[in-house]
Amino acid sequence: TQLLEQSPQFLSIQEGENLTVYCNSSSVFSSLQWYRQEPGEGPVLLVTVVTGGEVKKLKRLTFQFGDARKDSSLHITAAQPGDTGLYLCAGRRRTSYGKLTFGQGTILTVHP
Amino acid sequence: EAQVTQNPRYLITVTGKKLTVTCSQNMNHEYMSWYRQDPGLGLRQIYYSMNVEVTDKGDVPEGYKVSRKEKRNFPLILESPSPNQTSLYFCASSPRLAGGPGGELFFGEGSRLTVL
User: Fold this and answer.
1) B45, B90, B104 member nearest A45 (Cβ)
2) pLDDT single digits (tens) A61-101
3) Best of B27, B33, B43 to disrupt the A interface by mutation (most A CBs within 10 Å)?
């Protein structure tokens, strides 16, 4: 079983639609990151959240860290074809110093 | 240019033939780590290193070895590769402990390994 469960695993939408990707766990994380990966490349960091209840915005992307620090979400407003890619959440637990655990990823396809 | 460089990018080998995937970063980062990426499983951490001569197991270390003799290099060694180690491997580095504030992971371009 995955320590970090992402849903949905696949998302295919039309340009202009809104979407939300979820990252859930039964464990508490001291911090959580979201990465985006394009084919043939390594993941690139989008955001780091560290405080329970924290909300961060990056243009059309909104990231939220759950109050209990067990879950996070990524919301994209008015998706564009350039948003297409694999989105990964990654968390660091207080009890696993040095380890960074990734979710299984969400493949997003935005059609023109 | 700041980067993480992995070699080889592509490799096909046979079961049992020892191989090493090199990883080098030019950003003077303390933290380095290896991941494997398999469909539907995301990235799984193999080993990580918080400084020179300091390495520790990630979530899937079986069948792999690493060393950190210099700050910039963190090679991944497969002593006796098996078909279940066929995967896409990523090396990454971070200026601070990965995952927290200032702990952005910078990834290499990946090494696709096939073990027959």
Assistant:
1) B104
2) 999 999 999 999 999 999 999 999 999 999 998 777 788 99
3) B43
